[in-house]
Design brief:
The structure is a single chain. By secondary structure, the chain is of the alpha+beta class. The protein folds into two domains: 13-257, 4'-phosphopantetheinyl transferase domain (Ribosomal Protein L22, Chain A, Alpha-Beta Complex), CATH 3.90.470; 261-358, ACP-like (Non-ribosomal Peptide Synthetase Peptidyl Carrier Protein, Chain A, Orthogonal Bundle), CATH 1.10.1200. The protein has helices at 25-32, 35-43, 48-73, 103-107, 151-155, 158-165, 172-190, 261-276, 299-313, 319-329, 335-345, 352-358, and strands spanning 13-18, 82-86, 92-96, 115-121, 124-130, 136-143, 201-207, 212-217, 233-240, 243-250. The strands form three sheets. A five-stranded antiparallel β-sheet has the order 6-10-9-8-7. A three-stranded antiparallel β-sheet has the order 1-5-4, covered by helices on one side. Helix 1 (25-32) runs parallel beside helix 3 (48-73). The protein is elongated. The two termini are 49 Å apart. The chain binds coenzyme A (COA). Coenzyme A binds at residues 54, 57, 89-92, 117-121, 140, 184, 187-188, 191-195.
Length: 359
């Protein structure tokens, strides 16, 4: 299984796939389910296929979580001591349900360990787990042999269909399914599935050589994670025999999620436009515009701007030193230089202007 992430340092993850039951389903249920899960298994109505997929999903999920707990927390739990129950939106949550003191309470946030995602289709089930419960994971699989008529017209926007149309014809069907799976994986990682609508998961890039698909959550899909506005999650996809898989790991606040220099510049230009809109300033604000001599900033305006920037990025930055330094040198500061300063303090590579400034 290929997985990744929207992070530079992907956290350790375990992915487990099963294509068949290891034993008779009722026997498996007795062996691996917690009392509450067993009750659910017995009360499940509807098609037998759904019951069996649910059970196989629980099996792979527990087999993914157990080695993580063993290796990282030295917790050796039996499958029935690990309980997987859905949150109100259906997202599977991992809990301890043994008879002794809850080892997960001692090990981490009370009663919670691991973040988990499950998918099943055509008798196969997969689960992806990471240790950190705050990290979001999403996995999906679909069978290529299942015929679908016209799903592309519903699932994809015109832009997304153009991405597909640009691929070689022999890749079309497989990559359409990969794109669908990528949307589902992101929907699961964000915890609401596709309830915001398929078009709220917008595919911005496809890289066939790496199996990579970038998905930008928009509109309703941003509700659980508003900090993702304007960002894309990396979803890695793979084909194995007749199945297509997609998986994503989103570590909240991860380094890779920081804005690019261009995004910082855009934000600063927009902010400066807001701040100076009532001022008697004839020209549009440009990257080269200088705050004091061109835009007529006073020191109080600079402090207001710096505070707004820190609040926007929720990161303290040494603006006091920067302002003191330009005061001592009796020089001005352009928006471009300010962009480099913010970029550097958000962890990006320093730009040429920033290097010059600190000398
Ligand atoms: C969540 C969803 C993407 C699952 O897709 P699916 O193709 O039906 O089924 P999959 O096999 O891929 O995945 C099923 C698993 O997803 C997980 N899941 C369900 N809801 C979830 C959620 N909100 N967040 C994360 N994971 C979720 C469950 O673990 C489920 O398996 P389980 O019930 O056996 O535990 C889909 O059902 C969905 O979007 N539901 C929400 C709203 C909706 O019904 N929209 C329809 C519009 S298209």
């Amino acid at each position: 299984m290929v997985y990744d992430s929207s992070v530079t340092q992907a956290p350790e993850s375990v992915c487990v796939r099963m294509d068949a039951f290891p034993c008779e389903p009722n026997v498996l249920a007795d062996l691996i389910l917690s009392p509450r899960e067993r009750e659910h298994w017995r009360s499940m109505r509807g098609v037998e296929k759904r019951r069996r997929e649910w059970l196989l999903g629980r099996y792979v999920a527990k087999e993914a979580v157990r080695p993580l707990l063993e290796k990282n927390l030295d917790l050796h739990l039996s499958p029935e001591e690990i309980e997987i129950m859905p949150d109100p939106y259906g997202r599977p949550l991992v809990k301890y349900c043994g008879s002794g003191p809850d080892p997960l309470v001692c090990a981490g946030p009370p009663g919670r360990a691991s973040s988990l995602s499950i998918a099943h289709s055509h008798g196969t089930a997969v689960a992806l787990a990471v240790l950190d419960p705050e990290t979001r994971v999403g996995i999906d699989l679909e069978s290529l042999s299942h015929r679908r008529e016209d799903f592309e017209a519903i699932a994809f926007s015109p832009d997304e269909r153009s991405l597909l149309a640009a691929l070689p014809g022999n890749l079309h069907q497989e990559w359409a399914l990969r794109m669908w799976c990528a949307k589902e994986a992101v929907g699961k990682a964000l915890g609401r599935g596709l309830s915001a609508g398929l078009l709220a998961f917008h595919i911005t890039r496809v890289e066939t050589a790496k199996g990579l698909i970038e998905v930008e959550p928009r509109d309703g899909a941003l509700e659980p994670c508003p900090q993702l506005r304007g960002k894309s999650l990396n979803v890695y996809t793979a084909r194995e025999s007749n199945f297509v898989f997609a998986a994503t790991i989103y570590q909240q606040g991860a380094v890779r999620m920081r804005p690019s220099r261009q995004e910082i510049l855009n934000y600063l230009l927009q902010k400066m436009g807001e701040l100076t809109q009532d001022w008697d300033y004839p020209d549009p604000v440009r990257p080269g515009s200088r705050l004091f001599t061109e835009l007529g900033f006073e020191s109080l305006d600079a402090v207001v701007l710096c505070t707004a920037i820190q609040e926007h990025y929720q990161t303290p930055m040494p603006f006091a030193e920067l302002l003191a330094e330009i005061g001592q040198q009796q020089r001005d500061l352009s928006i471009d230089e300010l962009t480099d300063f913010v970029n550097t303090h958000l962890g990006g590579p320093p730009g040429a202007d920033a290097t010059r400034r600190v000398q």
